[in-house]
Amino acid sequence: MKLRRALLAGSILATLLAVVSGSYAQAPTPTPTQAARQLAQATPAPQRGELLQPFTDAARSDWHYTPRRRDGIALKAMSPAQREATTALLRTALNESGLDKVRALMALEIALRQIEGSGSSRDPENYAVALFGEPGAAGWGWRVEGHHLSLHFSLDGDRYVSTLPQFFGANPAVVARDVVGAPKQGFRLLGSEEDLARQWLASLGPAQRSRAIFSTRPFGDIVSGNAPHAKPLDAAGLPFADMNAGQQAQVLKLIGVFTEHLQPGLAQARLARVRAEPLDGIRIGWVGSIQPSEPHYFRIQGAGFLIEFDNSGGNHIHSVWRDFDGDFGRDVLGEHYRKAEGSAHRHRSPTSP
């Protein structure tokens, strides 16, 4: 509701709202397989080839967070029936706060259009949904992606096995003035993430802070970029083991904020993966200015995961969560396929070309 209050009513936002809420939200939520099949059935044959993509590593790991054409079907090309099915699919993975967050991110394109004077190049409906593989199969997935948004979901039947990679961006990070159809002045899409990181930084003693801040100048973007396979970055920042109990709790709370858009079970599963590795292996580091609205960056890295948050320009954020083994469900689905080899249970490998 907080995000909803931060948005203005308008014709474009009303259209976006139909994708993430509306009367369809009152209907029972179907399973992911049912929702994906409804979307496929609602899609005319000429469009279906755009919606249905192969369940291959090459297809699924080709992801981007810049403005460009996406595989799949964009919201602006969807019929009402397709929008309803898309709403249902989103709801199988995202909670109400997450749906609002996605809607607000799309609406930031309206504010950015006014700031840049860029006309139609900033399009709040240029966000595409793609299905990978056969919905309900032992390995399939879906993605919603556009400028500053790339959310990936991998499933085994109706069971979500991965909700990563995850990318959220915000430009402007802080909305400077009211623009019809955009979030209100002062709105911060990723404000909770930044505020909690700053609270942790402020809690550090001088010796801790000197280790936590490992560079004075941000890198210009997230370091991991849109690599198909995420790799650990240099060990930098303050180790978890060198924090007091209160500071450790702050770090875990900060990590949790990056899952708050997910349905509770999916958020818990993500955080369980974090806790399955020794927490002492986590490092969190800060780069750049410690003053608000000035260029900065922070990262949290554990044995199996990486979170990056970059605001190199002071009002333009990129954030990402990667899993070194579990992006796109590679670890779980890969093991499933390996066990199926040599048995009567046959299907195509998720990493086959």
* Spatial gap, N to C terminus: 44 Å
**Proportion in β-strands:** 15-25%
Biggest β-sheet description: 13 strands, mixed
Total DSSP helices = 12
Unreliable stretches, pLDDT < 50, 5 or more residues?
A: 8-15, 20-25, 342-353
Q: Which helices and strands, and how do they pair?
A:
Blueprint: H1 2-5, H2 11-20, H3 32-42, H4 45-51, E1 52-53, H5 57-60, E2 73-74, H6 80-91, H7 96-116, E3 128-132, E4 140-146, E5 149-156, E6 159-162, E7 166-170, H8 191-202, H9 206-212, E8 213-215, E9 238-239, H10 245-257, H11 264-276, E10 283-288, E11 296-301, E12 305-311, E13 317-323, H12 330-340
Write a structural description.
- This protein has 353 residues and is an alpha+beta fold.
- Helix content is 35%, strand content 18%.
- It contains twelve helices and 13 strands.
- It has helices spanning 2-5, 11-20, 32-42, 45-51, 57-60, 80-91, 96-116, 191-202, 206-212, 245-257, 264-276, 330-340, and strands at 52-53, 73-74, 128-132, 140-146, 149-156, 159-162, 166-170, 213-215, 238-239, 283-288, 296-301, 305-311, 317-323.
- Strands 1, 2, 3, 4, 5, 6, 7, 8, 9, 10, 11, 12 and 13 form a 13-stranded mixed sheet that branches.
- A hairpin with a 2-residue loop joins strand 5 (149-156) and strand 6.
- The radius of gyration is 20 Å and the shape is globular.
- The termini are far apart.
- Mean pLDDT is 90; it is low at 8-15, 20-25 and 342-353.
